[in-house]
Amino acid sequence: MSSLLPSVQSGYLPYFLLLTSVAGTYNAVQNYFIVWQSKEIYSRKADEMTLLAGRIFATWTAMASMIRGVAAYNINDPIAYNLVIGTYALATFHFMSEWLVFGSVKPNRGSAGPLVVGWTGLIWLLTQRESYLIIL
């Protein structure tokens, strides 16, 4: 089983990326068929979370999860590292703007996860960039 996980020598960041990749994949699959969890996240405008919106969100989440999974195993690759920063930056921007600008997200148990994971991933990746990448 341990041979399936990222290298221990790479620290904990790859494990975080893998964990969020798996969680995102779960979220993407469930959004193709049901949207009740997403309706909880977007609870101020839950009526706008239709099955179509769920499938669009699922596709976006699946793409971010693939990038995070690849980066977990290629943490020293500058292209993978920069792409994974982009996934957390976009997710954080999306949820923050839905909360503060568009008013569809309210802080609750449904939105806490995406907000915490987005900020955690973004800050962790940006502050540890030089530790993982050798910039020539």
UniProtKB/TrEMBL annotation:
Query: Which ranges does the record mark as transmembrane?
Result: 12-29, 50-73, 79-102
State the membrane topology. Answer: Multi-pass membrane protein
Predominant localisation class = endoplasmic reticulum
**What's a single GO CC term here?**
endoplasmic reticulum membrane
UniProt keywords (A-Z) are: Endoplasmic reticulum, Lipid biosynthesis, Lipid metabolism, Membrane, Steroid biosynthesis, Steroid metabolism, Sterol biosynthesis, Sterol metabolism, Transmembrane, Transmembrane helix
- Claim: Lipid biosynthesis is one of the keywords in the record: yes
Any GO BP: sterol biosynthetic process
List localization entries.
Endoplasmic reticulum membrane
The question of whether Coiled coil is a record keyword is answered with: no
Task: Name any one GO molecular function.
Answer: protein-macromolecule adaptor activity
Cited PANTHER family? ERGOSTEROL BIOSYNTHETIC PROTEIN 28 HOMOLOG, ERGOSTEROL BIOSYNTHETIC PROTEIN 28-RELATED
Task: Please report which protein family the annotation says this sequence is part of.
Answer: Belongs to the ERG28 family.
Protein's recorded name: Ergosterol biosynthesis protein
| Native source organism of the sequence | Kwoniella dendrophila CBS 6074
